[in-house]
Amino acid sequence: MIQIYNTTEEINTKAADLFVESAQKAIAEKGKFTAVLTGGSSPAGIYKLLASDAYKTKIDWSKVFIFWGDERWVPLNDDLSNAKMSYATLLSHVPIAAENIFEMYKDGVTPEDFAVTYEQSIRTVLGNEGKFDLILLGMGDDGHTASLFPGEAVLNEQTKWVDAYYLAPQKMYRITLTAPLINKAEKIVVVAFGEKKINALKEVTTGEFNPTLYPMQLIKPVSGELVFLVDKIAAGTN
Predict the structure, then answer these.
(1) How many CB atoms lie within 10 A of CB 216?
(2) Within a 10 A sphere around the Cβ of 155, how many other Cβ atoms?
(3) Are strands 2-5 and 64-68 parallel, antiparallel or unpaired?
(4) What is the mean pLDDT of each run of 10 residues along the chain (238 residues)?
(5) Rounded to two decimals, what is the model's pTM?
(6) CA 3, CA 5: separation in Å to the nearest integer?
(7) Which residue in 88, 109, 215, 225 has the most C-beta neighbors within 10 A?
(8) Res 238: pLDDT
(9) Chain centroid offset of residue 103 CA
(10) Radius of gyration, alpha carbons of the chain
(11) CB under 8 Å to 29, separation ≥6 — which residues?
């Protein structure tokens, strides 16, 4: 499902509303809400909105569990850290327990070993079904999502829930949820806006199936819902 909005602010509001709705529903039905955050600059406005007085009181944060879709393998105080941005805009401003937050980085271990540990953490909270209530994703200009980049071996992963690898073009390690795990989710919300997203969005949604080139095409929920929140510019309708 593609929903087109006039402005980024409208996208942020819709995404925040979906986050709240999913949280309230999950907590009412299961007693907890499991969410996956995305990095980059795109979600900052969403997180700030969720941290505002108008939104944060709508969620029982003591029953919220936070994970990430991917992370650059850098310390949590590094400006490249997705977690750092998430704390600055959201997590440091809401009453969520530290033990309910699962950052995708740990000092003193290899990214490959930590990927195994991170999967174990997911299984501990979600069980072997591995079904998140809500996953927020962005989409790169090249059609990547999370750290599922074009041409990388991680695109073919079928068994691991979490994988880590060295991304040569960026000269750094990345750790990411894999497509099979993402696709288990109850709801997946993809945010994309701006002129640079036009080609990727068109190819991902209406082009031939070529996930090696456009990895976002791998995101096809098993039984949940996939929603694209885009602006008119990205949709090519402006």
Answers:
(1) 25
(2) 18
(3) unpaired
(4) 94 97 98 94 93 96 98 93 94 97 96 98 96 96 95 97 96 97 98 93 94 97 96 87
(5) 0.96
(6) 7
(7) 215
(8) 67
(9) 13
(10) 17
(11) none
